[in-house]
């Protein structure tokens, strides 16, 4: 398991951080979404190929990202089927790539380059040539960050947690 930063955070820490990071517009997601992301992270902790990056300030988790290699043969859930159907023929570009599952920055640390640094560290630690993620298809600070880092739209996938259409971005 590749890790950078301090020890792996507990799912409860991830939930708290994501709730703070996503509560304000433009995302304005309900707190339940943070619980869902924390549960998915907790389930992913069993993976030997998991990449986790963190940033802490005086012990508090202020930045977090994680992901893992993506292989369609391993994806048997409804969300993945919806992703594949939405992308159509383009879905093949994700096989063998690295899925950035979550990137979150505490609101007090936005616009200071922390999101950029976390994403860069995630991508380097993944040792993959191709990375992808899903964002709401709307103008958000995160989407602008991804665009600056060279991510480009691949197609639409499952709906984002805030109800906006989900847009798959790919890099590499």
Write structural notes for this entry.
This protein is α/β, with parallel strands linked by helices and 172 residues long. It has a single domain, classed as Aminopeptidase (3-Layer(aba) Sandwich). The chain is built from 5 helices and 7 strands; from the N terminus they run βααββαβαβαββ. The chain starts with a strand and ends with a strand.
**Annotated CATH topology:** Aminopeptidase
Averaging pLDDT over every residue, what do you get? 94
The total tally of domains equals 1
> Approximately how much beta-strand content do the residues carry?
25-35%
How large is the count of helical segments? 5
Order of strands across the biggest sheet?
A: 1-2-3-4-5-7-6
The CATH first-level class comes to: Alpha Beta
Number of strands: 7
Q: CATH homologous superfamily - what is it?
A: Gcn5-related N-acetyltransferase (GNAT)
Please outline the major beta sheet: 7 strands, mixed
Taking pLDDT < 50 over at least 5 consecutive residues as the criterion, the unreliable ranges are none
**Protein structure class:** alpha/beta
Shape descriptor reads: globular
Radius of gyration: 15 Å
What percent of the residues sit in helical stretches (DSSP H or I)? 25-40%
The CATH architecture comes to 3-Layer(aba) Sandwich
Spell the H/E element sequence: EHHEEHEHEHEE
How many angstroms does the end-to-end distance come to?
A: 22 Å
């Amino acid at each position: 398991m590749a890790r950078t930063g301090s020890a792996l955070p507990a799912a409860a820490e991830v939930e708290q951080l994501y709730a703070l990071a996503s509560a304000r517009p433009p995302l304005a997601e309900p707190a339940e979404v943070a619980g869902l992301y924390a549960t998915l992270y907790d389930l992913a902790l069993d993976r030997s190929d998991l990449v986790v990056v963190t940033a802490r300030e005086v012990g508090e988790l202020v930045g977090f990202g994680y992901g893992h290699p993506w292989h369609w043969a391993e994806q048997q859930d409804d969300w993945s089927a919806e992703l594949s159907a939405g992308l159509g023929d383009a879905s093949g570009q994700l096989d063998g790539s690295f899925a950035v599952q979550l990137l979150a920055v505490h609101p007090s640390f936005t616009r200071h380059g922390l999101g950029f640094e976390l994403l860069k560290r995630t991508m380097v630690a993944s040792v993959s040539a191709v990375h992808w993620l899903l964002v709401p298809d709307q103008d958000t600070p995160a989407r602008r960050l991804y665009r600056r880092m060279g991510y480009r739209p691949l197609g639409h996938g499952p709906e984002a947690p805030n109800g906006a259409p989900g847009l798959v971005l790919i890099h590499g």
